[in-house]
């Protein structure tokens, strides 16, 4: 206990973050995290915000450790070649998956628990804070895409709808979209159940149904064939991205930019222009071989019908 307390109070967070980065860049990050968990050091290293420490207790490292072990095994089995930086980001996002729905109040604003751990406990970079947040958000969306691709969605979606939803997630994740795909099967593991939220709220995620029927294995164990099912899920999404022609859609430029839309529709700058730009991108995703003139006709009809709602915040711009 004295050692654990000293680690939390006498060793700088910057030093802890530097040592952990070396572990994550090493040959077996999951084994390093498992040792931290076995030595009861996990909460001292991945320290959550003070407001959430009583809620989480000291046992939250268990599912987090199981997730990074599953992530490392999946990455090795799939064989995707990732840069050191991308590999580290994927493993960190996997480790923090159980905390993805957990937030706390800071200066009257809600902050993600995982962001606090990365920024304050590990003193890692802003790009990792933003990368993990984006991966957590869009891995859930990609889970719905996987259900649609496999014909298992609760509500039947057309190929066009699935392509648009998939393309939106790829565009948001940009060059990290394959990391989001890798997270999808991990969301279906029991260990990935969101911590610190009501069961009804956790069940809202599309991954919840798959996790509930995913096999009742004890922590640290995998039912036979589970890893292969995870690999199949990743390959199914990668194949769908290729089949839809979306692999590089995060680099596409809108067929119509803001200036063209202003001239075309006499719309002022603001939320409506953002919504129109997003509608242009959605049309491109749905019709990858469509022409600029066809897009113009669609946007004119959409705008004149009054069906388009102004974009909230900067959502349209980010697409």
Brief account:
63% of the residues lie in helices and 3% in strands.
Topology:
Layout: H1 2-9, H2 13-25, H3 29-38, H4 42-45, H5 50-56, H6 61-78, H7 84-95, E1 103-106, E2 109-112, H8 113-121, H9 126-149, H10 159-173, H11 177-187, H12 199-202, H13 207-212, H14 226-244, H15 258-265, H16 271-286, H17 292-305, H18 315-318
Antiparallel strand pairs: 1-2
Helix pairs in contact: 3-6, 6-7, 6-14, 7-9, 7-11, 8-9, 9-10, 9-11, 9-14, 10-16, 11-14, 16-17
Q: Structural class of the secondary structure composition?
A: mainly alpha
Regions with little confidence, pLDDT below 50 for 5+ residues:
208-217, 314-319
H-E order: HHHHHHHEEHHHHHHHHHHH
> Taking Cα atoms only, what radius of gyration do you get, to the nearest Å?
21 Å
- Kindly report the spatial arrangement of strands forming the biggest sheet: 1-2
The share of residues in extended strands comes to: under 5%
Could you describe the largest sheet, including whether it forms a barrel? 2 strands, antiparallel
The averaged pLDDT comes out at 90
Q: Helicity range of the residues?
A: 55-70%
Please count the beta strands (DSSP E, at least 2 residues each).
2
Count of individual helical segments: 18
Measured between the Cα atoms of the first and last residue, the distance is: 49 Å
What general outline do the C-alpha atoms trace? Answer: globular
